[in-house]
Every structure is written in structure tokens, then in C-alpha cells.
UniProtKB/TrEMBL annotation:
It comes from Saccharibacillus alkalitolerans. This is Lrp/AsnC family transcriptional regulator. It comes from the Bacteria. SUPFAM superfamilies: Dimeric alpha+beta barrel, Winged helix' DNA-binding domain. It holds the Pfam family HTH_24. Signal peptide: none annotated.
Length: 134
């Protein structure tokens, strides 16, 4: 990857809907040359997918929480199976090193729903809850 490829990735990270013509202008290439480079970056797996940044609060999920997760034993499967059923609330679940086993990011429509989630979660693991303030 050269500096032009890095600029292309940076531009696409800011706006995945940019036209190839505009992308080319920003990185000092023709639109056709920029499109060819984007295709090569996709083929090499540098660009994996294009996505949308959604404001979950406006979708009705204002409670934003991070949970450090500790599993009680060596088998994490009961926790992972539970989390797989909670895709309405779970944004990301990272297996991490350090004090805890996982870092779970979630969004909830209310504190009441969060409380119900925590009661269910506690059947599988222990956790430490942090609420995002801003």
C-alpha cells in the first residue's frame, strides 16, 4: 500500500458514498484510476465492507452501556449462546485480555429493559456495568 491507497481508505472511511470522481479529485487521480484502486483494495481484503453509522439514540435506544464480563469457568459457551440471542441490544462483544474476559457494548430503550437484560445475563456471568454519560 502506498500513500495514495492510504488516502483512499481515509476518504472512504469518512464517506463511503463518495463518488469515484470526487474520490479521485481528493487523491489527485482520475475517477477511473481511483475506482481501479478501490477494487484492488477490496480484492486484497483491505476494504472489507461499507457500512452506515446509525444514531441508535434516535432509533429509540438512548441507554448506552459497556459491561466488563467475567465468566465463572472455562466454558464461555453459555454466555456466548445467550449473547447471540440479544442482537437487539448488543452492538459489540470483544474477547479481551486483562481483568475481564469480554467487553460488551449495548444499547437499550430504557433502564427497565437494561435491568431485565442484566438479570438474565447474571445467570451466565458476572459483570461490571458502566453507563455512557456523553
Amino acid at each position: 500500500m502506498d500513500h495514495v491507497d492510504l488516502r483512499i481508505v481515509e476518504e472512504l472511511s469518512q464517506n463511503g458514498r463518495i463518488t469515484m470522481k470526487e474520490l479521485g479529485e481528493r487523491v489527485h487521480l482520475t475517477g477511473q484510476a481511483a475506482a481501479a484502486r478501490v477494487l484492488k483494495l477490496e480484492d486484497r481484503g483491505v476494504i472489507k465492507r461499507y457500512t452506515v453509522d446509525v444514531d441508535r439514540e434516535q432509533l429509540g435506544y438512548p441507554v448506552h452501556a459497556f459491561l466488563n464480563i467475567w465468566t465463572g469457568g472455562l466454558s464461555h459457551q453459555p454466555y456466548l449462546t445467550f449473547i447471540a440471542t440479544q442482537d437487539e441490544y448488543v452492538i459489540r462483544n470483544h474477547k479481551i485480555s486483562g481483568e475481564s474476559c469480554y467487553l460488551l457494548e449495548c444499547r437499550f430503550p430504557s433502564n427497565k429493559v437494561l435491568d431485565g437484560f442484566l438479570i438474565d445475563l447474571n445467570r451466565y456471568v458476572n459483570y461490571k456495568l458502566s453507563i455512557v454519560v456523553s
